[in-house]
Write a structure and sequence with these properties.
- GO terms for molecular function: ATP binding; ATP hydrolysis activity; branched-chain amino acid transmembrane transporter activity.
- Keywords: Amino-acid transport, ATP-binding, Nucleotide-binding, Transport.
- This protein has a domain of about 70 residues.
- The protein has ten helices and ten strands.
- Helix 3 packs parallel to helix 6.
- The model has no long low-confidence stretch (mean pLDDT about 90).
- Bound molecules: adenosine-5'-triphosphate (ATP).
- The site of adenosine-5'-triphosphate has 11 residues, from strand 2 and helix 1.
């Protein structure tokens, strides 16, 4: 808890959508500093919209606070400058740029050049595959390497909150498992708070401390990852197979 005795990320009565399409209907959740929080739910439930709402990409009604500081109503750039890095579904890497150029784009808010160089090393430490390809165009990377690059680029912001949207999308099971292992080490070593939206509920619950199930824009169930895993409805709907 911070000085205001409030969770690190606090979301209250959050409503969001696209024009007349209302997607989130009064979402509330709290995430402690250094925690990994998984968001599960069926297609179209609003998981991606929730992450977009947290990082200022869609207009919201309600409150989002990070360490007591309001995020709601700020631009994506202002939210990024407060330490929120978003890795969107589909990764959003710049295909014609090299790996290292993509990583440097992630540090666009920063002036401390020497520290940026140190952070490149830090990212290559987590993702040795990227170091081997630092001068290669992002468009020529495998899907798994592109996802690593997207997460690496987010790390270049030195985020306090990392938002990951479907990191496993389109990846082979082995690559996905490796990726989640790296996310867990980033969280452990840097105490970065993580909110991860993930279809692969087994993997997400393996690394998360707490989880929420989002259904038709509302939180249907919240609890520790162990409680959510033990829930019969969750088991039937989301835990069909393990990779
Ligand atoms: N740009 C947009 N304009 C209008 N409606 C949108 C837009 N993006 C998403 N939606 C709608 O908002 C609803 C929630 O979509 P969202 O992508 O947030 O769900 P999701 O839970 O992430 O689903 P998925 O698992 O399929 O990615 C869906 O009905 C979707 O059609």
């Amino acid at each position: 808890m911070n000085a205001k005795d409030e969770a690190f990320l606090k979301v209250e009565d959050l409503h969001a959508g696209y024009g007349d399409v209302r997607v989130l209907h009064g979402v509330g959740l709290s995430v402690g500093q250094g925690e990994i929080c998984a968001i599960l739910g069926p297609n179209g439930a609003g998981k991606t919209t929730l992450l977009r709402a947290l990082c200022g990409m869609v207009r919201v009604r309600g409150a989002v606070r990070l360490d007591g500081v309001p995020l709601s109503g700020r631009s994506p750039d202002a939210v990024a400058r407060l330490g929120v890095a978003h890795v969107p579904e589909g990764r959003g890497t710049f295909m014609p740029l090299t790996v290292e150029e993509n990583l440097r784009v992630g540090a666009y808010t920063r002036r401390d050049r020497a520290a940026v160089r140190d952070d490149l090393e830090r990212v290559y430490g987590y993702f040795p595959a990227l170091r081997k390809r630092l001068r290669q165009q992002a468009g020529s990377l495998s899907g798994g390497e592109q996802q690593m690059l997207a997460i690496g680029r987010a790390l270049m912001l030195r985020p306090r909150l990392l938002l990951l949207d479907e990191p496993s999308l389109g990846l082979a099971p082995m690559v996905t498992r490796e990726l989640f292992g790296i996310v867990a080490s980033i969280n452990r070593e840097e105490r970065t708070t993580v909110v991860v939206v993930e279809q692969n509920a087994h993997l997400a619950l393996d690394v998360a401390g707490q989880a929420h199930v989002l259904e038709t824009g509302r939180i249907a169930l919240s609890g520790s990852a162990a409680d959510i895993r033990a829930d019969e409805q969750v088991a039937q709907s989301y835990l069909g197979y393990r990779i």
